[in-house]
Amino acid sequence: MGKVKAERRLNENEARAVARTIRVSPQKLNLVAQLIRGKKVEAALADLTFSRKRIAETVKKTLESAIANAENNHDLDVDSLIVAEAYVGKSITMKRFHARGRGRASRVEKPFSHLTIVVREVAALEEAA
Fold this sequence. Notes:
The protein has one domain (14-123): CATH 3.90.470.10. The chain is 33% helix and 35% strand. The protein contains 4 helices and 3 strands. One of its GO terms (biological process) is translation. InterPro entries: Ribosomal_uL22 (IPR001063), Ribosomal_uL22_bac/chlpt-type (IPR005727), Ribosomal_uL22_bac/org-type (IPR047867), Ribosomal_uL22_CS (IPR018260), Ribosomal_uL22_sf (IPR036394). GO terms for molecular function: rRNA binding; structural constituent of ribosome.
């Protein structure tokens, strides 16, 4: 007896990868995610390789993981993949204190984020359009 297997949330031509609790604010991570949305994976990887943002390396790892999932788990063609979705979610926020003058303290918040990348295989007809 056992649990019924959950239905696949993505289409048959899609694969995804999720990176959780990344130590960067969602706003900064979204700037890098915007850079790759809708692009072919080769162009997205090239953009992330030469980006000057610190978090671009983590986004690149997540994109490479999504590509590997598409190839190995879902038998999709790597050459015809595009970044269908790249979205950022808010995670925990560590609260810390910073000593100030006259015996006071200020609050320092250190935010974390989640990143989800979905790659989709597009047909040859869609690429020509």
